C-alpha cells in the first residue's frame, strides 16, 4: 500500500467513525477544564468544528451548538454493546 492509498484508508476510517457516533451521547472536556455533555451530531470535513444537540453546560442546555475542535481537550463516547 503506497502513502496515497494509506491516506485514503485513514480518511475513510475516520469518516466511518464519526458517522457511527451520530446521535450518541458524548462527554466533552474543554481546554478550560469545564465538562459538558450532549449528543454528537456532525463534524466538518476538516474535523475542526463539531455539532452537538442538547448540550448541557453550567449555564444551561443548548438545543443545537457548534464547538471548535481547538476548544476541546477530550471527547468521550460511552462504550455500547454490539448487537448480534
Overview of the molecule:
The chain is of the alpha+beta class and 84 residues long. Helices cover 21% and strands 45% of the residues. The chain is built from one helix and five strands, in the order αβββββ. The chain has a five-stranded antiparallel beta sheet with strand order 4-3-2-1-5, with no helix packed on it. The radius of gyration is 15 Å and the shape is globular.
Classification by helices and strands: alpha+beta
DSSP E strands, number: 5
Largest sheet at a glance?
5 strands, antiparallel
Determine the N-to-C terminus distance.
Answer: 33 Å
User: What is the overall shape?
Assistant: globular
Low-confidence parts lasting 5 or more residues at pLDDT below 50? none
Contiguous helical run count: 1
Strand order of the largest sheet: 4-3-2-1-5
List SSEs in N-to-C order. Answer: HEEEEE
The oligomeric state is single chain
Backbone CA Rg: 15 Å
Mean pLDDT, to the nearest integer, reads 93
Query: Portion of residues in helices?
Result: 10-25%
β-strand amount = over 45%
List the helices and strands and how they pair.
Elements (H helix, E strand, L loop, with lengths): L2 H18 L4 E6 L4 E9 L5 E9 L2 E9 L3 E5 L8
Antiparallel strand pairs: 1-2, 1-5, 2-3, 3-4
In short:
The chain is an alpha+beta fold and 84 residues long.
Structure keywords:
single chain; 84 residues; alpha+beta; 5-stranded antiparallel sheet; 5 strands; globular
Amino acid at each position: 500500500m503506497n502513502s496515497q492509498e494509506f491516506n485514503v484508508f485513514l480518511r475513510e476510517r475516520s469518516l466511518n467513525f464519526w458517522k457511527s457516533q451520530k446521535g450518541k451521547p458524548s462527554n466533552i472536556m474543554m481546554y478550560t477544564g469545564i465538562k459538558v455533555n450532549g449528543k454528537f451530531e456532525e463534524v466538518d470535513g476538516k474535523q475542526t468544528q463539531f455539532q452537538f444537540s442538547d448540550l448541557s453546560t453550567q449555564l444551561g442546555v443548548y438545543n443545537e451548538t457548534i464547538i471548535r475542535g481547538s476548544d476541546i481537550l477530550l471527547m468521550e463516547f460511552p462504550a455500547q454493546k454490539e448487537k448480534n
